[in-house]
What we know:
Elements lengths: L8 E5 L4 H12 L3 E6 L14 H13 L4 E5 L5 H15 L4 E4 L14 H29 L2 E6 L12 H20 L5 E8 L10 H7 L8 H9 L11 H11 L11 E4 L9
Parallel strand pairs: 1-2, 1-4, 2-3, 4-5, 5-6, 6-7
Helix pairs in contact: 1-8, 3-4, 4-5
Amino acid sequence: MSSSLEGRVALITGGARGQGRSHALHLAALGADIVICDIAADVDTNPYPLATPADLAETVDLVTGLGRRCLSRVVDVRNATAINDLVADAVTEFGRLDILVANAGVCPFAPFEEITDQAWRDTIDINLTGAFNSMRAVIAPMREGGYGRIVATSSMGGRSGVPNLAHYVATKWGVIGLVKTLALETATSGITVNAVCPNTVNTPMVHNPALYGLFAPDMDNPTMEEVRPRYETMNPMGLAWLEPEEISAAVGFLVSEGARHISGSTIEVSAGASALMP
């Protein structure tokens, strides 16, 4: 069964770098035209730098280099009006919108009792409300076209508890709840809704001094190679991190014709960590 996305249009949030960029390039390589957005600015309560406008522009260049059209916008997914406007612009530009990858997210950390009110609000608003805003915005054009593929980025943190990540974990469990509920509401409309749950992925979200310090608090200014053994203990396969292209392959399957009867599911790309969970 064909995996071609020729003639399809895909929106990827958080598309400037990391998993979002990888998803955009993978879907473009399969034939889709691409719409990407990103906040392209830092968030005060997030402990590492986020993407920049230059990152967003680079992703556009990489997509167009594959021979696909690309519409990009600086959009904060917390802003429902901005997401709605982007979807409307995409439909005007391309005549349709077939695929959403709700990928934008942040990963702050702190012990439970030290999570500030603002850090809680920012994490919930970006990771969970942002996914909701994005998913809600695409339903109407997908219903009108009688076709849609929605994939939301959850996490293996959405399948268990994780110390120091209560606010992040809460959002990723919440994303799965959104997916399962919308899957039921769109079950007879030609729209599928699923989640991917990656384990640690080789992206700037993971590779930064703040996250290294979280997993190696006994080290001063740990390097990537110094923290690698810590990450290797976090899954049965002993991988320090997955590559973003591995997550993109799962996304590509979920938006393909071969997955047309898969909806309301969570696909765990976990390096074996799924085997440790109920």
